Amino acid sequence: MTIKIKTAEQIEKMRVAGKLAGEVLSMIEPYVKAGVSTGELNDIAHDYMVNVQGTIPATLNYRGFPASSCISINQVVCHGIPDPNKILKDGDIVNIDITVIKDGYHGDSSRMFEIGQVKPYAHRLCQVALECMWLGIEQVKPGATLYDVALAIETHAHKNNYSVVEEYCGHGIGADFHEEPQVLHYASPDLKSIVLKEGMIFTIEPMINMGKAGVKVLGDNWTVVTKDRKLSAQWEHTLLVTANGYEALTLRDQETPVLPGQA
Ligand code: MF3
Ligand code: CO
Ligand code: CO
């Protein structure tokens, strides 16, 4: 019912956790190449979290999820289960979603990777999905509503003839992985009553589809795919509402906002 306002101490811990989540995604980048399996990538991420960072992989055994990352290829929307038999190939687009726990607090972030030469339409989907996330993030400030965030995302997706997944959403985050509020990425009128306040922390993680918005869950009870089997792309950051805007807690070194009309 209520959205937690984090204390200064909690915010500092969320900064640390967020930075560590971003560092896993930076660390893994050179390994994300044709020929590697998603199982191997998960093992590399797991080892780094546990043995280098001293973080806990939050997804491992979360509601029974069997791995330390979610790795979602092409038509897989989210919650792809890493698998030693699933090999990345030239032309694939891949989301890796990492959530770490450090000192009791969660950092959650994901990004797309393009494997080798991808088709121009696949590259464009990844780019527009990235812009959708940042357009949503740019709305974040005290007094704005989650409707503003969702409308910015949905408008850009629709302008590009893409659709926005409705069944999965961003979320408050802190000592718990998934807290209130639910951060829907489509312009549901219900979001108009969720007003942002300094000290709130939540994720924005739009899933953008090339075809229709519909999704279904495979028989493993985790893997979410597009119903029409067309491509889907997702990016995610964990955001803090500050006095006059936002702080992206999971921002990676060298990463800057990507908005439409840039290069
Ligand atoms: N990291 C995902 C998110 O962004 C959640 C994954 S839950 C899992 O909310 F169980 F699938 F790992
Ligand atoms: Co999340
Ligand atoms: Co995530």
Automatic annotation (TrEMBL):
Its cofactor is Co(2+); Zn(2+); Mn(2+); Fe(2+). This is Methionine aminopeptidase. It comes from the Bacteria. Its EC number is 3.4.11.18. Substrate binds at H79, H178. The keyword Nucleotide-binding does not apply. A divalent metal cation 1 binds at D97, D108, E236. It catalyses: Release of N-terminal amino acids, preferentially methionine, from peptides and arylamides. One of its GO terms (biological process) is proteolysis. A divalent metal cation 2 binds at D108, H171, E205, E236. Pfam families: Peptidase_M24. It comes from Thiosulfativibrio zosterae. Residues 12-243 form the Peptidase M24 domain. PANTHER family: METHIONINE AMINOPEPTIDASE (PTHR43330). GO terms for molecular function: initiator methionyl aminopeptidase activity; metal ion binding; metalloaminopeptidase activity. Belongs to the peptidase M24A family. Methionine aminopeptidase type 1 subfamily.
